[in-house]
């Protein structure tokens, strides 16, 4: 094994007082929703930079010799690792260069630069950014800080496992998101050393099942593409981490985009907790693979909370549409004074709240004396939608549902 429990304990002593000892919180409502006997969330989203990366970054930077620290460090990252390295390098007085892909969101670039790092945008993705970072490290004599395939990084992340073992000693299983594998590698090493019977389950985005394929010896090409769980969208998993996962992790589950969106929404609504896509992947797996966790005492790591505000708002609105709490009805009316008021009154009498309304007069399949009205309505639940539809049709206004996958139109 590349990392031992003693190295993780040493890392815990190094980072103590310099990173947040995050809480492990009980979630009775989520446990009921998922069917778990108990569900605990380890809130790494409460670290100063918003993710677990603070742990490994600080442990690695503290291991540098004075000469190495003076020369400076370089890292490649699209977000969380960049901020962890930049923040702790600034605190320790170590010059830091961060190479980020050209498409990295501006907010992540600015946040990293705000920690005093030299930020360089190179490459179309993290793999090409890594090539540039290694070349620059060699040219300028910088110390390369790998985001996951480094024993000190893995040991730093493994301190989460020590804390879980102390705070929640009766867990049956722990579910951990996998990108390059540093987080699950460290946690699995710690927990399996302390409690050999505990089960460790990994989670990857279905579009980027790199570790899932690697541990099986498969060369199947990744689907790739845009994912809301960009923090774990890794094409090249670590060699050190692969060996740990192969030995200590019992299963790797894949989650699609819908499941991750649903998990983000549930965390906000049930726990008032903001998580990024990768941070919610563990809960997404528990929701999507319910039978695997039913009746078990489960812990999962909310590994990051750095989600773009605009993206979060879209996820929450899409969730309301998916659940039938915001719908769009297309209502056919006669195009004359007072009719629109009658439509609004029928919806209001049922307790629906009209958010937006649009006339559609130019559709070629409508008679000139008629019009369609598209009404965006806030509702309570699917039954409430059906009540509104029935009320409108009873009043002489044929209508059909244009939105929501969770509600079937009466037609």
Strands in their spatial order, largest beta sheet: 1-2-10-7-8-9
Task: Indicate the low-confidence ranges by residue numbers.
Answer: none
Assembly annotation: single chain
Structural class: alpha/beta
**Tally of separate helices:** 17
N-to-C terminal Cα separation, in Å? Answer: 61 Å
How does the SSE layout of this entry go?
Elements (H helix, E strand, L loop, with lengths): L4 H11 L8 E3 L1 H7 L3 E6 L9 H10 L3 H6 L1 E4 L3 H13 L3 E5 L5 H9 L3 E4 L4 H15 L2 E2 L6 H17 L5 E5 L4 H13 L4 E7 L4 H5 L24 H10 L2 E5 L1 H15 L9 H8 L1 H4 L3 E6 L6 H14 L3 E9 L4 H11 L3 E8 L9 E9 L3 H13 L4 E3 L10
Helix pairs in contact: 1-8, 3-5, 3-8, 5-6, 8-9, 9-11, 12-13, 12-15
Write a structural description.
By secondary structure, the chain is α/β, with parallel strands linked by helices. The protein folds into three domains: 5-52 and 152-317, Rossmann fold (3-Layer(aba) Sandwich); 55-144, Rossmann fold, CATH 3.40.50; 323-401, ACT domain (Alpha-Beta Plaits, 2-Layer Sandwich), CATH 3.30.70.260. The chain is built from 17 helices and 14 strands. The chain has helices at 5-15, 28-34, 53-62, 66-71, 80-92, 106-114, 126-140, 151-167, 182-194, 210-214, 239-248, 257-271, 281-288, 290-293, 309-322, 339-349, 382-394; strands at residues 24-26, 38-43, 73-76, 96-100, 118-121, 143-144, 173-177, 199-205, 251-255, 297-302, 326-334, 353-360, 370-378, 399-401. A six-stranded mixed beta sheet has the order 1-2-10-7-8-9. It has a four-stranded parallel beta sheet with strand order 5-4-3-6, sandwiched between helices. The protein has a four-stranded antiparallel beta sheet with strand order 12-13-11-14. α1 (5-15) crosses α8 (151-167), α8 packs across α9 and α12 (257-271) packs across α15. The longest helix has 17 residues, at 151-167. The N and C termini lie far apart (61 Å). The relative contact order is 0.12. The model has no long low-confidence stretch (mean pLDDT 92).
